[in-house]
Amino acid sequence: MYTVRVSGVRGRRVIVVGATGRLGVAIAEALARRGDKLVLTARDPNKLAVMEEALRAAPLSADVATVCADLTRPSAIDEIVDGVRAKVGHVDDVVLACGPFPRTPFDDLVREDLERTLHVHAVAPLLLVHALKGDLAASHGAVVGLGDAGTTRPYTNHVAYLTAKGALRAGLLALSAELAPEVRVNMVDLGIVADPEADADPLRHHRLATRSRLGRFGTPDDVVHVVLALLDAAWATGEVWGVGG
Ligand SMILES: NC(=O)c1ccc[n+]([C@@H]2O[C@H](COP(=O)([O-])OP(=O)(O)OC[C@H]3O[C@@H](n4cnc5c(N)ncnc54)[C@H](OP(=O)(O)O)[C@@H]3O)[C@@H](O)[C@H]2O)c1
């Protein structure tokens, strides 16, 4: 397990956006395990409450706050920043792990698919970093965004999603220039992380896994390792670390 920061010594306050997702949960738990403090944000208040309770309980006994916000709404950025200010004051680092994975067959693609997906995956996360840039600069913070290997090796039926992830990638690279040298901004470009649905169909599983040179799906732990490494990588910005390709 990756643990460069010694538990309890640095205790940075990290906001995880999309904290209740498969990868968000794994990232939040890993941050808590090494003694970082958390702000968790997502859309569903019930999932957030369950997660907050689990992280606060022993053995992690984590310092956790939650802020519920729907990133499709224009008010979401203010809601998140107001929640941070009211509950914990500030954040040091940001992990962007949010958003849906909508199937949008090209023949049926409509403007709404593109606009909504672009908004949740790129517009809102970039505006959130913009709103928190003073916090991040003051603490020499880091932003790590989860991207998708499909933006450079596309697959079908996901034009809206891949367009949005491409915008996030370009936006974060631009921010790495805008926010340097105080704030580092990096990305992880993921292959496919195993999910129960894919695992249930051995043929589909095999077909998708063989797309990867490593011949397997990733696991949440594979992603956690890279996210924590980039949060800590004090001499890296504007990097896109591809994993599972
Ligand atoms: N899993 C993979 O194989 C894979 C591969 C490549 C890239 N990625 C990227 O990795 C990240 C995490 O993936 P994942 O598999 O953990 O996704 P996931 O399980 O679907 O979780 C998505 C998270 O985003 C939140 N979210 C969705 N729509 C939102 C909205 N409108 N406003 C606020 N929050 C919203 C969800 O919260 P609610 O439940 O409250 O809606 C949830 O916390 C995503 O950016 C994804 O594109 C994943």
Describe the model:
Helix 1 (22-33) links the parallel strand 1 and strand 2 (37-42). This protein has a single domain (13-243), classed as Rossmann fold, CATH 3.40.50.720. The model has no long low-confidence stretch (mean pLDDT 93). The chain has nine helices and seven strands, in the order βαβαβαβααβαβαααβ. With 245 residues, the chain is of the alpha/beta class. The longest helix has 21 residues, at 111-131. The structure holds NADP nicotinamide-adenine-dinucleotide phosphate.
What is the structure about, briefly put?
The chain is 45% helix and 16% strand.
Chain-averaged pLDDT: 93
Bound molecules: NADP nicotinamide-adenine-dinucleotide phosphate
Number of DSSP strand runs: 7
CATH architectural type: 3-Layer(aba) Sandwich
Series of secondary-structure elements, N-terminal to C-terminal: EHEHEHEHHEHEHHHE
CATH class: Alpha Beta
Strand content: 15-25%
User: What's the helix count?
Assistant: 9
Provide the gyration radius in Å. 17 Å
Main sheet: strands, sense, barrel: 7 strands, parallel
Overall structural domain count: 1
CATH homologous superfamily caption: NAD(P)-binding Rossmann-like Domain
Helix/sheet category: alpha/beta
Distance between the termini: 22 Å
CATH fold-level assignment: Rossmann fold
